Amino acid sequence: MRKLFTLCFVLREGEILLGLKKRGFGAGRWNGFGGKLDPGESIEKAAAREIEEESGIIVRDLIPVGTHEFEFSSDPGTILEVHVFRCQDYSGEIIETEEMEPRWFRFQDIPYADMWPDDIHWLPLLLEGKKIETRFLFGAGDTLLEWSVEEKDDLIRKTT
């Protein structure tokens, strides 16, 4: 079974906007902004909606940069298919929401120790402007059991 999600990273000169997840899945970790698709919603519309709900901004340039496949050993066969975007043009004021506390980080100060353990393997490639396809298998305690990260010239969407 596949479940679709989105993940968006807002970038500006040498900095990335991350949000400290305050509740739910991933609480206590820094991450990009995103989540589940609503019924009938496109991946792009879901990404734009989620970032507005979680940070208050409206994205103007949603650029697809990758796809992750996450699986957890506690739920074999369920794949979380996450479509990753970057954005550099937005309007509105960045605000803290019930779900996320946004903060800018310089690239060299990204708090990888307080993020999902897979991020260190692919986020530097995203920051270099590369496109990626990844696969991660998590075990108990969110430890990484297996992973692959591939740079791609072009992205092929698996699911629409």
SSE topology sketch:
Blueprint: E1 2-12, E2 15-21, E3 30-31, H1 43-55, E4 58-59, E5 63-72, E6 79-87, E7 90-91, E8 100-106, H2 119-127, E9 131-138, E10 144-152
Parallel strand pairs: 1-6, 5-9
Antiparallel strand pairs: 1-2, 2-3, 2-8, 4-7, 5-6, 9-10
> What is the domain tally?
1
Number of helices: 2
User: N-to-C terminal Cα separation, in Å?
Assistant: 15 Å
* Relative strand content: 35-45%
Parts with pLDDT < 50 across at least 5 consecutive residues: none
Order of helices and strands: EEEHEEEEEHEE
Give the overall shape, derived from the CA principal axes.
globular
Q: What's the CATH topology name?
A: Nucleoside Triphosphate Pyrophosphohydrolase
CATH superfamily: Nucleoside Triphosphate Pyrophosphohydrolase
Main sheet summary = 8 strands, mixed
Question: Nearest-angstrom radius of gyration?
Answer: 15 Å
Overall pLDDT level: 94
Provide the CATH architecture.
Answer: Alpha-Beta Complex
